[in-house]
Amino acid sequence: MPGGTILAVDGTTYDADALKAAIMTAKTTGVVDLVVKSEGGVASVRIVYDGGLRYPHLERIPGTPDRVGQIFSPRT
User: Fold this and answer.
1) C-alpha span between 32 and 27 (Å, rounded)
2) Rounded Cα distance, 1 and 39, in Å
3) Sign of torsion over alpha carbons 65, 66, 67, 70
4) Cα separation of 19 and 34, whole Å?
5) Of the candidates 49, 43, 45, which has an alpha carbon nearest to the alpha carbon of residue 23?
6) More confident position, 42 or 39
7) What pairing do the DSSP bridges indicate for beta strands 12-13 and 31-38?
8) Which of 22, 32, 45, 60 could disulfide-link to 10, CB 3.0 to 4.6 Å?
9) pLDDT at residue 1 above 70?
10) DSSP secondary structure letters along 34-57
11) β-pair type (5-9, 12-13)
12) Is the CB of residue 39 less than 8 Å from the CB of residue 45?
């Protein structure tokens, strides 16, 4: 939720490690339960997810220009 704050993950106080553990557990259970605080109050939210941890990254399509390399190259 925009502007929301995660208070708890699967019954434990939120921190990054608790969230990672919940996502890893969700590979078998299929759900992650959150307690979220927003402007309207506190709500329990169940997320159906079984994809495990994911770390997106960029891959250049072969035969196309390296735009990211151009952006990060030093100016001359």
Assistant:
1) 10
2) 10
3) negative
4) 9
5) 49
6) 42
7) unpaired
8) 22
9) no
10) EEEEETTEEEEEEEE---------
11) antiparallel
12) no
Alpha-carbon span 20 to 10, nearest angstrom: 11
The residue to which tokens 């939120």 are assigned: 14
User: Of 69, 1, 20, whose CA–CA distance to 9 is shortest?
Assistant: 20
State the average pLDDT over residues 57-66.
Answer: 90
State how far the Cα of 6 lies from the Cα of 19, in Å rounded to an integer: 10
Q: The pTM is what?
A: 0.69
Amino acid found at 19: L
- Per-residue pLDDT of 18-32, as tens digits, reads 999 999 999 999 999
Question: Which residues are registered as beta bridge partners of 37?
Answer: 5, 42
CA nearest neighbour of 11 among 27, 33, 26, 28: 33
Domain ranges in the chain? Answer: 1-52
